[in-house]
Write a structure and sequence with these properties.
Keywords: Methyltransferase, Transferase. By secondary structure, the protein is mostly helical. Helix content is about 75%, strand content about 0%.
């Protein structure tokens, strides 16, 4: 465990129980969200590769146009 996480847990342990539970729920939800994102991203690699190949083929076939951006 990192020093920063230890410090955060130490500080959180000084809070009332309801606040500790709220922080714990936030942390657990964030971990679950990160795990879902990692899983979805891993599963999307083939789809992303297919889209990249399609975009490259369209570019090589001259079916694309330069993106015109306004100066800011």
């Amino acid at each position: 465990m990192t020093q920063l996480l230890k410090k955060a847990f130490s500080e959180a342990s000084k809070l009332p129980e309801n606040a500790q539970d709220a922080i714990a729920e936030i942390i657990l939800a964030e971990i679950a969200s990160q795990e879902r994102w990692n899983d979805l991203f891993a599963k999307s690699q083939n789809v992303l590769a297919d889209l990249a190949q399609e975009a490259l083929a369209e570019y090589q076939a001259g079916k694309t146009q330069p993106l015109e951006c306004e100066d800011q």
